[in-house]
């Protein structure tokens, strides 16, 4: 067992600070610290997927802790560092998948060039495979061909299911499905061996053709032999490199799909809020109507009060003017009377 696995088991049982003395102070580690692996917090660390393979990235120098991962997952999705970690994980996976796509493209170009050269050199055609026994028109050949096709389809389905179980981490169930495929594969191989021709020349031609027919795996970029033994195909499908790249694709697809759903949900909420605001603008609430009615009534009252006050002022000004006229008239009368009284005395003199 590797040292890292033993250390992780001890950390799980006794805690990360198992070697700290009773009088020593312990520094609490947060998931946002620089020494914590951010890829492990988001989904998984890619350094652990391709150990001892051609795509080995080497050991990860950061801390992997399940408690910190649980704290990260329970943190608010609005946390800026959480979104930043997810973006970093997606960029790292996208870079690895881009490099893989370029390798697959080059491998397919090289394979097509090799096949073209073989065709120019006059290689035997694939239709001679197995001496044409399985393509015969006899009743026995038809039944055997049908049985082999049924077994092959069932084996392929079980292998795909086992691959999915392995990616999701259900290793025991994947191993159980592989055991079932082994028994079906033995039955299919028995039917194929029964159909093999007895002539050594045709058998050697079929083996040679089987070795030369190659293809490139679209998941991990490895070279595969067309029609290879099912055991080798199963070993390849459940290998670290194949499952690692499949897990990278599944993780990136899941994160992008979750983000797309979140964007759609936010857009729906925004549309709903806009519609509600438009409805409020078109039909104001009763409280605003009441306020408007009160304002209009208060304005009418103020206007009526102003009018009444202006009328009162006008009436008062009229009264004042009439009083002033009356007072002037009385003054004029008094003056005239006084003049009249003085006039006879003057006449006598």
UniProtKB/TrEMBL annotation:
Biased composition range(s): Basic residues: 287-310, 318-336
InterPro entries, sorted: Luc7-rel
Bias (Basic and acidic residues) ranges: 254-284
GO cellular component: U1 snRNP
Region (Disordered), start-end ranges: 254-349
Family according to the record: Belongs to the Luc7 family.
Protein name (database record): Cisplatin resistance-associated overexpressed protein
Native source species: Caligus rogercresseyi
């Amino acid at each position: 067992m590797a040292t890292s696995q033993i250390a992780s088991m001890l950390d799980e049982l006794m805690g990360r600070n198992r070697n700290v003395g009773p009088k020593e102070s312990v520094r609490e580690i947060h998931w946002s610290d620089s020494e914590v692996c951010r890829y492990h917090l988001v989904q998984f660390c890619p350094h652990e997927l391709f150990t001892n393979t051609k795509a080995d990235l080497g050991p990860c120098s950061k801390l992997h802790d399940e408690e910190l991962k649980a704290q990260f997952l329970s943190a608010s999705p609005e946390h800026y560092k959480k979104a930043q970690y997810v973006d970093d994980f997606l960029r790292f996976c996208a870079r690895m998948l881009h490099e893989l796509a370029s390798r697959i493209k080059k491998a397919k170009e090289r394979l097509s060039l090799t096949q073209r050269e073989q065709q120019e050199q006059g290689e035997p055609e694939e239709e001679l495979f197995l001496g044409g026994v399985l393509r015969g028109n006899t009743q026995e050949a038809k039944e055997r061909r049908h049985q082999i096709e049924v077994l092959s389809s069932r084996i392929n389905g079980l292998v795909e299911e086992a691959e999915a179980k392995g990616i999701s981490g259900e290793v025991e169930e994947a191993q159980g499905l592989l055991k079932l495929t082994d028994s079906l594969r033995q039955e299919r191989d028995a039917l194929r061996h029964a159909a093999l021709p007895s002539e050594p020349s045709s058998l050697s031609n079929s083996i040679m053709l089987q070795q030369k027919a190659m293809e490139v795996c679209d998941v991990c970029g490895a070279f595969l032999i067309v029609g290879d033994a099912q055991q080798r195909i199963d070993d390849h499908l459940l290998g670290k490199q194949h499952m690692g790249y499949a897990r990278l694709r599944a993780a990136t697809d899941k994160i992008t799909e979750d983000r797309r759903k979140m964007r759609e949900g936010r857009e729906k909420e925004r549309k709903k809020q806009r519609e509600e605001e438009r409805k409020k603008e078109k039909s104001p609430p009763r409280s605003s109507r009441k306020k408007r009615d009160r304002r209009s009534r208060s304005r009418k009252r103020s206007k009526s009060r102003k009018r009444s006050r202006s009328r009162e002022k006008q009436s008062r000004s009229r009264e004042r003017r009439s009083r002033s006229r009356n007072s002037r008239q009385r003054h004029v009368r008094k003056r005239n009377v006084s003049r009249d009284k003085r006039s006879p005395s003057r006449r006598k003199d």
